[in-house]
Amino acid sequence: MTDPQQPRLTPLDEWESEAATILDGGDYDAELGLRMARDAIRVSNGELSDAAFHEKYHEAVVAEFGEDARPTEPEGFDE
């Protein structure tokens, strides 16, 4: 799944605490945002597929926002 020609993304050590600080000020689930960010890096690195990412977070996104209107919905995804 990983492409040796693509550079791996590695988050800076302080990214998570900085992201948590930003997300804590909002009205939405900060932990959900952090989990999705961690897995978005995995998608970028080819360690997790777009479809698996969408499936993994679909129910949590619907619970948090009332709908899953992410533009990343895989073709043929069945709600």
From TrEMBL:
Residues 11-73 form the 4Fe-4S ferredoxin iron-sulfur binding domain. It holds the Pfam family Ferredoxin_N. InterPro entries: Ferredoxin_N (IPR031604). It comes from the Archaea. This is 4Fe-4S ferredoxin iron-sulfur binding domain-containing protein. It comes from Haloferax sulfurifontis ATCC BAA-897.
